[in-house]
Design goal:
Low-confidence stretches: 1-51
Domain ATP-dependent DNA ligase family profile: 158-257
Protein name: DNA ligase
CATH class of the largest domain: Alpha Beta
Order of helices and strands: HHHEEEEHEHHEHEHEEEEEHEE
Oligomer: single chain
CATH superfamily of the largest domain: DNA ligase/mRNA capping enzyme
Mean pLDDT: 85
Radius of gyration: 25 Å
Catalytic activity: ATP + (deoxyribonucleotide)n-3'-hydroxyl + 5'-phospho-(deoxyribonucleotide)m = (deoxyribonucleotide)n+m + AMP + diphosphate
Strand content: 25-35%
Helix content: 25-40%
Organism: Saccharobesus litoralis
Keywords: DNA damage, DNA repair, DNA replication, Ligase
CATH architecture of the largest domain: 2-Layer Sandwich
Structural class: alpha+beta
Number of domains: 3
Strand order of the largest sheet: 4-3-5-6-7
C-alpha cells in the first residue's frame, strides 16, 4: 500500500512538471506572436526523428573503363550527375543510408521491387539536386525539378539483360514522367564508344556507364560496372589557402589539398569570383576533376568542381 502511494505521488509529480513545461513553452512562443503553424511544426519535428538506416545500401560501384575489356559484352548508358537513390520497396535511401524525404506523390507509384537509380534535376544542376535531396523539409515545388533515373534492380542476382527487361516493364507500368528508364545501347568498338562519349559531353552530360550484360548485381567496386569520362574526378581535403596574385590579388589564388593517400597538390582553377572571395574553409572536403596522372602520381590539370556534401 505504501509503495502504491509513492508511485501515485510520483506520477502526479511528473504530470504536473510536464504541464508546467508545456504551458511555459506555449507562453514563450505566444509572446513572440507566432502563428499556429510556427507553434507546432509537426512535420519538422517528425523529420528530425526519422531513423537513419543502420547499414548503408550495398550498391554496385564503378571501376574506371579500361581499353582491355571486350566492349561487345557491355551495354552502355549515359552517366547522370545526380544523387544515388536506392528504392528499398518501402523508402528512398541515399548511398550512405540516409532516408530521403520525398513527397508521397513521388514514391507512391514505385513498386515493391527494389530499384537503383539517380535522382537528377538536369544538366549542370548537381548543387540544386543535392540541396533538395538533403532537405528534411518536404517541398512539393522543388521536388517537381527531380527525376528518378532508374538503371537497375537493386541486389537482383539475375544477368543484367534480364534485369533490364523487368525494369523496362516496371517503368512502363509506373507511367510517371518523373520516373524514367535509363536507355541502354551497345557498341562494338572503341571508335563508336568514344563517339557516343563526345555526343554526351557536347550535351553537357558527364560521361558513360558500361554494364556487363551477363553479370548479376554485385555490391562494391567491380568490373561488372565501368565508368568512362573525359575527365576523372576524386576528392581531397583543403589544408591551406594560397593568396592570389595579379588579378586575384587580395583573394584566393589556389588551395593546397591532400587526398586520401596523403598526396598534396594545388588546385587553382575552377573557382568562381565569389568562391575566391569567400573560399571553402580549411578542412572542407572538395571534389575536383583531372586528366590522368603525372609520372609522380599527382593529378594532371586538377580543376575544382564543388564542395563534397555527404547525403
Amino acid at each position: 500500500m505504501h509503495k502504491q502511494r509513492i508511485d501515485l505521488a510520483l506520477s502526479k509529480f511528473f504530470i504536473s512538471v510536464s504541464f508546467v513545461v508545456f504551458v511555459t513553452y506555449v507562453s514563450a512562443l505566444e509572446s513572440q506572436q507566432l502563428t499556429p503553424q510556427q507553434l507546432i511544426p509537426q512535420q519538422e519535428i517528425l523529420e528530425q526523428f526519422t531513423p537513419r538506416q543502420q547499414t548503408p545500401p550495398q550498391v554496385t560501384l564503378a571501376k574506371v573503363y579500361s581499353a582491355e575489356i571486350d566492349i561487345s559484352q557491355y551495354w552502355v548508358s549515359e552517366k547522370y550527375d545526380g544523387v544515388r537513390g536506392i528504392w528499398t520497396g518501402q523508402e528512398l535511401l541515399t548511398r550512405s543510408g540516409n532516408v530521403i524525404h520525398a513527397p508521397t506523390w513521388f514514391t507512391e507509384k514505385l513498386p515493391s521491387t527494389p530499384l537503383d537509380g539517380e535522382l537528377w534535376a538536369g544538366y549542370q544542376k548537381f548543387d540544386l539536386t543535392s540541396s533538395i535531396i538533403r532537405s528534411k523539409q518536404v517541398n512539393d515545388q522543388t521536388w517537381r525539378n527531380i527525376q528518378y533515373k532508374v538503371f537497375d534492380l537493386y541486389q537482383d542476382p539475375r544477368p543484367f539483360h534480364q534485369r533490364y527487361m523487368v525494369l523496362t516493364h516496371l517503368v512502363t507500368q509506373i507511367n510517371q514522367p518523373y520516373i524514367q528508364l535509363v536507355e541502354q545501347n551497345q557498341f562494338l568498338d572503341e571508335r563508336t564508344l568514344y563517339q557516343e562519349l563526345d555526343r554526351v559531353i557536347a550535351n553537357q552530360g558527364e560521361g558513360l556507364m558500361l554494364r556487363h550484360v551477363e553479370s548479376g548485381y554485385q555490391a562494391g567496386r567491380n568490373a561488372s560496372l565501368l565508368k568512362l569520362k573525359k575527365y576523372q574526378d576524386a576528392e581531397a581535403t583543403i589544408i591551406e589557402h594560397i593568396a592570389g596574385k595579379g588579378r586575384y590579388k587580395g583573394i584566393l589564388g589556389a588551395v593546397l589539398v591532400q587526398d586520401s593517400s596523403g598526396r598534396q597538390f594545388k588546385i587553382g582553377t575552377g573557382f568562381s569570383l565569389a568562391q575566391r572571395q569567400a573560399p571553402p574553409p580549411i578542412g572542407t572536403k572538395i571534389t575536383y576533376k583531372y586528366l590522368g596522372l603525372t609520372k609522380t602520381g599527382l593529378p594532371r590539370f586538377p580543376v575544382y568542381l564543388r564542395v563534397r556534401k555527404s547525403v
